[in-house]
Design brief:
Layout lengths: L4 E6 L4 H9 L5 H11 L4 E6 L7 H5 L7 E4 L11 H16 L2 E5 L1 H9 L3 E4 L5 E2 L2 E6 L1 H4 L10 E4 L2 E2 L1 E5 L5 E5 L7 E6 L2 E6 L7 H10 L1 H6 L6 H15 L4 H4 L1 H10 L3
Parallel strand pairs: 1-2, 1-3, 3-4, 4-13
Antiparallel strand pairs: 5-10, 6-9, 7-8, 7-11, 11-12, 12-13
Helix pairs in contact: 4-5, 7-9
């Protein structure tokens, strides 16, 4: 019998933002991730940490060796803003990279991991992924990497990001790209960790992405992500059409592959 694996999930959003999600009936990113992990019926014990909000973070940080793996999820924060919440996340990632061997860094998680490892993240100059990333292309390194096992070499995915990795850490390998972000998939070592990073969200449904667009409508209009309500409606329609063209297993292949990797030894 395979022993249970112990995973730490790190929530990237603040507790205040998650409360706003809950009030309107949207799952937090951690809740979405746990639902997706449970789909695979793996024997996984899960702990949750929120570096921006947890008061007992030092206690968690002192026991990181007990975790077989770490999954660090998404956030609406911007890594280049100098806030206490972001500094706390960077410091916690620094400690995780010293103690946890296998890290799956998703979207914001990738940006935090890259920054701590010496890379750089800036606002994307070519535009944002607004609920969906189109035409992610797996390169030659990615084709041979376990994260893309059984994945199509060109695919779309749920995604929501306005920032991008512009400088990768030393000895990194870019695994996939699209026209907006050169770094959509990345493999690198940092401290004692092997990190699989992606700039999109296979663990989140398109339906939730549509809910987030409506939830964040004023914010998105204010920052110029959409011109007006008509553009929002048209964009949501494109995402709804994508729902018809993708199945759950193929959408979540990267998560499945990382869980399989976790159980290899």
């Amino acid at each position: 019998m395979v022993d249970n694996k112990k995973i730490l999930i790190v929530e990237g959003n603040t507790r205040e933002e998650n409360s706003e999600f809950t009030e309107v009936g949207i799952n937090t990113h951690t809740e979405s991730l746990i639902d997706s992990i449970n789909f695979y019926k793996k024997k996984v014990d899960i702990d949750i940490a929120n570096p921006s909000s947890d008061k007992n973070l030092d206690k968690t940080a002192q026991n990181l060796e007990k975790y077989d793996g770490l999954i660090w999820g998404g956030s609406s924060l911007n890594i280049y803003n100098d806030t206490d919440e972001i500094r706390r996340q960077l410091e916690f990632m620094r400690r995780c990279q010293k103690k946890i061997k296998k890290i799956f860094a998703i979207c914001w998680g990738l940006q935090v991991a890259v920054t701590v490892a010496g890379g750089e993240v800036k606002k994307s100059v070519k535009g944002a992924h607004r609920g969906i990333a189109y035409d992610i292309k797996v390169n030659n390194f990615g084709v041979s990497h376990a994260i893309y096992h059984k994945k199509k070499v060109k695919f779309n995915s749920p995604a929501f990001n306005f920032d991008e990795v512009v400088t990768i850490p030393q000895n990194s390998k870019i695994l996939s790209s699209n026209k907006l972000n050169n770094v959509m998939g990345l493999h690198f070592m940092a401290g004692n960790s092997e990190i699989w990073g992606i700039q999109y969200h296979p663990e989140i449904t398109y339906e939730k992405m549509i809910s987030l667009i409506h939830f964040r409508k004023k914010r998105l209009l204010d920052k110029g992500a959409f011109r007006d309500q008509d553009e929002i409606n048209s964009h949501v329609l494109m995402i709804e059409n994508e729902i018809k063209n993708v199945d759950k297993k193929s959408r979540m292949r990267e998560l499945e592959n990382w869980l399989n990797y976790l159980y290899e030894n």
